[in-house]
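Re-run with default settings, no changes from the original entry. Doing this only to confirm the output is reproducible before filing.
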Amino acid sequence: MSLRGPAAGRRENQVGGEVLGAALAVHRALGPGLLEQVYNRALAVELEWRGLRVLREQPMPVRYRGIELEPGYFADLLVEDCVLVELKSVEILQKVHFKQLLTYLRLSGLRLGYLINFNAPQLMDGLVRMVNGLPEG
């Protein structure tokens, strides 16, 4: 599912930068306190406005013993087929949220993901970048 190599890593990081900018724009406009679904739609609109392809609530299969379990899970946002975004609107991110994103990355073969808690007063306090074998750069 994911691309490999230096060029792919640059593309993933470039898309990741767009995700961050779009999330900040949405948080600045709407503020904290809304339902996750509102941020999901608003972030998708902002990313599409920036010219990126976004899939919302994308079904992601899970393979177990050679059998595909569908749907394994739903990715909140899949951006440009290379960045997974898991959205929350909670008081405090819990350990399970971090584990969830890491597992989603591992199962999908994707190398870059973001966990974004739009309920944080300052979005940067609710933003986590997670990599799964992606070189920095």
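Residues 6-131 form one domain. The chain has one domain: 6-131.
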